[in-house]
Design brief:
Blueprint (H helix, E strand, L loop, with lengths): L15 H24 L6 H19 L4 H4 L12 H4 L7 H22 L1 H30 L3 H4 L6 H14 L4 E4 L2 E4 L3 H13 L9 H17 L27 H26 L1 H6 L3 H41 L1
Antiparallel strand pairs: 1-2
Helix pairs in contact: 1-13, 2-5, 5-6, 5-8, 6-8, 6-10, 8-10, 9-10
Length: about 325
C-alpha cells in the first residue's frame, strides 16, 4: 500500500511578498469601496427620510393633478389669499430631475448635519430657511413687477427645495470648513461649496431659461441660512446665539481679494441688524464678556472638531465593517 505524499505548499517567487501585499491591499480597498457604496443607502435619519417622502408625494400630486400647482407653489399675485404658499412652495418640485436632486441632497446633507445639530434644530432650520426664502422671493417678485410692470413676475409659479439645500450647504461650511467633500468629480473644501453653487447657478442661468426662476431661491437660501446661523442659532455649549467667528463672516463666501471691500459694507448691515442687542449685551454682560475673551474662536474650533470627529467615527465604523467582512470571508475559505 503506497503512502500518500502531500504536495509541498507553493512558494512565492522573488518579490512575491510585495505582490501578495499589493493584492491584499487591493482587496481591502475593493472591500472598502464596496462598504462605501453600501453605506450610501444607510444611515439616513428619520427626519430626512420623512421630508424625502413629502417631496416625492407632493411631486406625485403635482404630476397627477397639475392644477394643484396654483394652490401649492408661490404665485406672488395669489399669495395674499393663499398665504400657505410661503411654506408649501419649498416642497413642490415640478420636474423629475428636480425632485431627484432634492431628495438625494436632503438625505446626504442631513446625514452629515443632524448628528451634530440634533433632530429638533435641523427641523427648525429647515422651516426657518424655507419660510424666509419664500418671503424674500415674494418681496423680490413684487418689487420687480412695480419696476418693470411685467405681469410674469406676478403669475409665474415659483417653487423648489433648492433654498433649503443651499442652506444645508452653508451649515456644512460652518461645521466642516476644511473637510474635503466630493462634489461630483471634484474634491472641494466645505467652506467653498455654497459659493461655488451660487456661482454655477448664476452662470448657468444665462444659458438655461428654466433655471432663472430657481436662481433667487438658491441665492436667498444661502443668504437667509447664513443670517440664521450667524445671528440667531442658539449654541448649546455656551448658551449664546450665533457664530461671530471670522471664518463664518459674510466676506468668507468670497475670494480673499474682495474681503477688504466687503467687510466695511457687511459691518454696516451688522450694526443695523444687531447693534441694539450688542449694546444690551455690553451693558448687561460686561463681566461675562471679559471672562470669555476669545470664546468665539474657541467655539468655532469646537464646532469644527465636532464635525471632524463625526466624520472620523463614520470612517472607523466603515473600516471595522471591512475588517469583519474580510475575517468572515477568510474563515469561510479556511473551512472550504
Amino acid at each position: 500500500m503506497m503512502n500518500s505524499v502531500s504536495a509541498p505548499p507553493p512558494t512565492l517567487p522573488a518579490g512575491g511578498t510585495h505582490v501578495a501585499a499589493h493584492l491584499e491591499g487591493s482587496l481591502t480597498d475593493a472591500a472598502f469601496l464596496k462598504m462605501q457604496g453600501a453605506s450610501f443607502f444607510r444611515g439616513y435619519t428619520k427626519l430626512c427620510k420623512g421630508l424625502a417622502v413629502i417631496l416625492f408625494l407632493v411631486h406625485l400630486l403635482v404630476q397627477l393633478f397639475p392644477s394643484s400647482v396654483d394652490y401649492l407653489a408661490l404665485i406672488p399675485a395669489r399669495t395674499i389669499p393663499f398665504a400657505w404658499n410661503l411654506i408649501t412652495a419649498g416642497y413642490v418640485e415640478q420636474t423629475i430631475p428636480g425632485v431627484i436632486i432634492s431628495i438625494i441632497g436632503l438625505l446626504l446633507f442631513g446625514k452629515l448635519l443632524e448628528p451634530l445639530w440634533g433632530t429638533k434644530e435641523l427641523s427648525k432650520f429647515v422651516f426657518i430657511v424655507n419660510f424666509s426664502t419664500s418671503m424674500c422671493v415674494f418681496v423680490t417678485a413684487i418689487a420687480l413687477y412695480y419696476v418693470t410692470q411685467q405681469e410674469t413676475y406676478l403669475y409665474t409659479p415659483l417653487s423648489g427645495f433648492y433654498g433649503v439645500l443651499s442652506g444645508l450647504l452653508v451649515g456644512i461650511k460652518q461645521l466642516m470648513p476644511d473637510q474635503e467633500l466630493n462634489l461630483f468629480v471634484l474634491k472641494i473644501k466645505g467652506k467653498w461649496i455654497p459659493s461655488l453653487i451660487a456661482l454655477i447657478s448664476v452662470v448657468v442661468s444665462f444659458f438655461v431659461n428654466e433655471l432663472v426662476s430657481s436662481l433667487p431661491v438658491i441665492l436667498f437660501g444661502i443668504y437667509m441660512s447664513w443670517i440664521y446661523l450667524r445671528y440667531f442659532q442658539k449654541r448649546l455649549e455656551t448658551g449664546l446665539k450665533g457664530d461671530p467667528s471670522d471664518e463664518f463672516s459674510f466676506s468668507s463666501f468670497f475670494p480673499g481679494f474682495l474681503r477688504p471691500v466687503l467687510d466695511p459694507i457687511a459691518s454696516i448691515f451688522h450694526r443695523l441688524l444687531c447693534g441694539r442687542s450688542d449694546r444690551a449685551d455690553s451693558r448687561g454682560q460686561t463681566l461675562e464678556s471679559s471672562s470669555l475673551t476669545g470664546s468665539d474662536s474657541t467655539e468655532a474650533n469646537r464646532r469644527r472638531e465636532r464635525g471632524q470627529r463625526a466624520l472620523e467615527q463614520r470612517l472607523a465604523e466603515k473600516l471595522a465593517a471591512v475588517r469583519s467582512t474580510e475575517s468572515t470571508s477568510s474563515d469561510a475559505s479556511d473551512k472550504v
